[in-house]
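Give me the fold.
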Amino acid sequence: MAHDSVELISIKFQAARACLADDELLRAKAIYQEILAMDPRHGDALQMLGIVDTELGLLDSAVDLLCKSIELNPDSDNAYYHLGFAMCKLEQFAAGLECFDKVLALNPGHVQAVCDRASALIELGQLDEAVAGYDHAIRLRADYAEAYSYRGNALLALRRTDEAIASFDRSIAIQTSPGAHLNRGNAYQALGAYQTAIDSYDAAIALRHDYAMAYSNRGVSLKHLHRLDEAIASSGKAIAADPNYADAHWNRGLTYLLKGDLGQGFLGYQWRWETDKFKKIRRTFAQPLWLGTPSIRGKKLLIHGEQGFGDTIQFARYAELVEQAGGHVVYEVEPPLFSLFQALPGVGTLLRQGDPLPAFDYYCPVMSLPLALQTDTASIPSCRRYLNADDTKRERWAQVLGSKTVPRVGLVWSGSPTHDDDLNRSIGLSALITSLPAGFEYFSLQKDVRTADMTALAGSQHVRHFGEQIVDFADTAALCELMDLVISVDTSVAHLSGALGVPTWVLLTHLPDWRWLLERRDSPWYPSVRLYRQSRARHWDDVLQSVANDLCASGGRDLV
């Protein structure tokens, strides 16, 4: 290449660097492209253009450019670092990890690669290894505030919350930042220290006035304190800062629902499909989504489950309303619910998940039905019962139970261990057994029992357990109908028992799921349900004492 061309490329390269220093990414990109038009094998220009494209979110282009630069200069730790960064942005974390390993083979002291490698390990679920990685980064740079903050996130994911808070505190002491304050707020929220969490979110907002995530998470803590109007306002500020922030819309919708404003609540609830959690389970079809219009008369509507068994059971009541509007309901349910739903009113075609789908005109996820049918607190389709146990199943279980001599009480003390709120909503069986008064016959309605609870169950002569004899929800329904009372934490059996019209006492956390509202003892969704609420978060003693007192006072009568 001629000397003049080399000199011109050098001048352009320096000009592009100056643009980057002034954050003029598009201008820098144009100059690097000019350089590559003159010399397509200019490795540094390829690398820098790849870095610029990463910043611009043009990740596929960035990866291609960085790979070409590495072909020309395979010993560039910087190129490998930025390639790893781009791969992680593309959520290809294993590939990113390989790139960071290349960086560290070339330059063991590349502290940013050590830190980002640890972040990739978090995404791959290797949390202990991630903590070790952040520790290594901190050994390389003792004042690495960002590494302390990320380390706190890994510790928080490991539920080592006190250590996480200490790590966030160290990060803030080195260099205060809105992100570290946000993360510390998240840790205090996980501990249940909601006012302290709010203080941390406020500190984050003081540093970044448009910090949408801090406003949104602050709203969650306010909701836990039952300060619902403030929670709604905080979510609103998050949305004002970022109108497309799905989590803020979702959280505000949940708070409206908990407050009893079902109209606003179900509108916000529809934003669930834009959150990271729900994007993974969202189903789409060639047919259009139905949310109440156009008329469903003469049309076939596919209703499908989306979350838990309890949700499917609770909103199954809407099938009859669709039928009354002239629609033919094609209802696809989870296989364990199939037998139970055989006689569900309003269903024209019942399918198991995984069965071939027949022709249909529209679809609606089951939890969008209240929005489609414009439900508010005055129009909740509430009847004493809309499900029935199978007669044959009930007769068989009646024989298993034998003759009744005292009132029968069915017990459900824990739900799925994978549920987001399982730590709060489930009760240890030993604590429940200790609180149960004499004069009743107690039955476990749980199919699956945790190891710790099996020990308590084996040592109890007061609770009969059937385990694997319970095949599906049709068996559970038959058992519920044979009870005088079902006592349950907030799980699918609580919904099942309520849908069957069986007297049901539901034991609720201090911040219950939205459908149970706040303060009231009854449920507008289930006339046969009575609600028992924690007065303090994560304390069941007063709930269990109230249940015991009411059992003793009832003598098995007036249980709703």
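The chain has 27 helices and ten strands.
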